Amino acid sequence: MPATEITADALSASGRSSEKMSLPTLQSKMKCDPEGYETELNLVYNQFKSSVQLFQQQAALNFTSAVSGGVGSDPTVAKDLGDRAMFLAHVTPFYPVQLLNYPKELVEFLSSSARVLPSSLRVTVTQALILLLNRKIVAIKETLPLFMELQVLSDKPLKVLAFSHVIHSIRRMNQKHKNETENRALQSILFSMLQEEDEKKAMRSLVTICDLHRRKVWFDDRTANAICRACFHKSSRVMIAALSFLLDYEKIEQENDSDESSDEEEQIQPHIAVSKEAIYKAKNTGTTSSKKKKKAKLQRVIRSMKKQQRLSSERDNNMNYYSPLTSLTDPQGFAEKLFSKLQTCKERFEIKMMIVKVVARTVGLHRLILLNFYPFLQKYVQPHQRDVTNLLAAAVQACHDMVPPDAVEPLFKQIVNQFVHDRSRTESIAVGLNVVREICLRIPLLMTEDLLQDLVLYKKSHEKAVSSAARSLISLFREICPSLLVKKDRGRPIDPKAKPKAFGEVTIPSDVPGADLLQDDVGDDVSNSSDMDDHFNDDLEEEDAGSDDDVSTHEGGSELNSEIEEDDDDGDTLMGNEEDDMSEDEGDVSCSDDDDVKSLGETKGQKRKFADFDEQLDSASQSLRALKRLAGAKSENNDTSDTTDGILSNEDFQRIKELKAKKEAKLALAQHGLLKKGSDPRSEHFKIPSSDQLSLKRVDGYSLEANIRQKMTKEERKALMKAGREETGKYQSKAAVKQKKTGGLSNRQKEHKKAMPLVAKRSKIARVKREKKMKQRGADKQFRGRKAWK
């Protein structure tokens, strides 16, 4: 008799009919009428308790489900116990008094007997407990240690179930608002487990903490410091997991951002390059219609490049950058402790490289001074060293402007001497020059004049990777210190007397970053508005002139402007001649007024006239920036800094952000040669990032290997050859191609098939012979030399 069915004796004792009912049917009826089925509930509850006692006794006697004689060896017993546990979990909300101790009994049963239970029973009982947790009958704080212990068991379905439940329950708890009290209680449980010596528990707690931090549920400094402290765990597995999370956090964030981005942004991800040949063809070659098509295509490419530049600038913005290493409470102590562990570490080479990267990243982010780190890296700087590009990237990352140049100089010379020389390979020279450029970008005081002139000579190399690396070094020092370069390599620098800052020198900002862009933009807006007013006044003057002069709108506009300017100049000179006889002071005032009018006529094209100032004031009162423009237009002798008064609104800051993005887009277009004729591509062809931007920038080993051709394997070469052969068809002889030809025969083929008479054939042969003789006679006449034989 299966135990999941209610017996007839029990039902008759309760005064009901003797028909058999299964647990799901009884569950639905108990939800409809809880008070009428208390007897059945007590019966099922007692059966559950008895089964639980049997399994607990088995656990006390050290039985397992596989051992003969154990209760768990019978699959029906385990299934019945699981069904009763799930049944009681479903009806617990309807019987809060009768099943008051049921959740605690379920937790005790799992914590004491989970290791000896069969896998299916463990999963079912865990699901019953999760059901109680979802209905808020049990708190997550009471069951979190149990769920962490269940993840340690060698049961994959149970491990996945327990882990997903912990993550989702904590996320649901913090969905509407952060519950700091509950979060701190749960964090203390997991952090204490992370510090335990048990490797499995510490590993599962670290995975849970990292996942919650990545999902930005526990996105505080306390969690970030706990992950960083896991780097000093005694277990190598836990240490490696913590180091890999710290190193790969930025890649994970970029992948998440790319997943959340729209399809329109995904289409702009590939790099778009425009050749000068395409620009030339769009402007010069082809018909008018084809030029229009090419120009339209070029404009689409330019727009996509601007959008790509704007997205990349938003993604690389310093305010959006985050890494767990930035939240360290004691970064100097963390770096020193991790470096001391690196010196005494006996792990394999890959783990040592991970520790080196984390130490270098911490030093670069917080601009720490760890002088012993550079001689340690100097021992491994060799071209034949394994994974040398990542080692050099770590060396670059650890350099910043607060490090004394004397501490980095031996490492810098070691890189130059080992990588950049005539007998070195092309790849080594290119990597060495790129590393020198990145280090000099951070510490320019390391470079000397003789060394720079020697390195610049590699620009004449026939290898693209070497020449491009040398040219990038030239472009860097054109901005930092042009005096170190030879005159022919200086080009046209912006500041010929520029020199790098001395060690410890700090530039203190005296203005809001980007305020100069806003001032230039306000000046452009004022000039544009004045031009509009001038055009409006010109129309008024044309209407007053009547039918005296016939001037067209487009073709005669320049003539009209020139005539107006001549009339204004004549009027000014006449007024100046008339006022020569006036007093000296009044004459000075009038001359100054005339000069102002002339300067406005030269710059704007015409004199500024306001038709209705009150109307402009009403329209400008709607926004703060419009008032500033109006004030700047009215005050002729004041500077733009006086009009702003040093007060910026939210609209101004948003405009500064847009202007910065526009400036970066213009810089990207200048690099591709897509600027218009009026703009100067040499004005800002190389942008030097600030020290804060360099500290946040992540240096990757692949970026140091730019333009280096990697040697292809045999399989890659085969695939490349097969890809080239796919376009061409199978080889066939000309005869076979002619045989398969359709659409009629050629004249020569028809001539061969034509049955000619014998006389025609003989005459044709005779004609051919005569033509040959005529050609030979002509060739003999043209011969003017002397025969070398008789």
TrEMBL record:
Listed GO cellular component terms?
nucleolus
Here the segments flagged for biased composition (Basic residues) are 750-776
Extent of Basic and acidic residues compositional bias: 489-498, 597-612
- Entry annotated with the keyword Calcium: no
Q: Which GO terms describe its biological process?
A: protein transport; ribosomal large subunit biogenesis; ribosomal large subunit export from nucleus
> Which locations, inside or outside the cell, does it occupy?
Nucleus, Nucleolus
Occurrences of domain SDA1 N-terminal (ranges): 87-461
Top-rank taxon of the source lineage equals: Eukaryota
Q: Which Pfam families is this protein grouped with?
A: SDA1_HEAT
Q: What is this protein called?
A: Protein SDA1
Organism expressing this protein natively = Ambrosia artemisiifolia
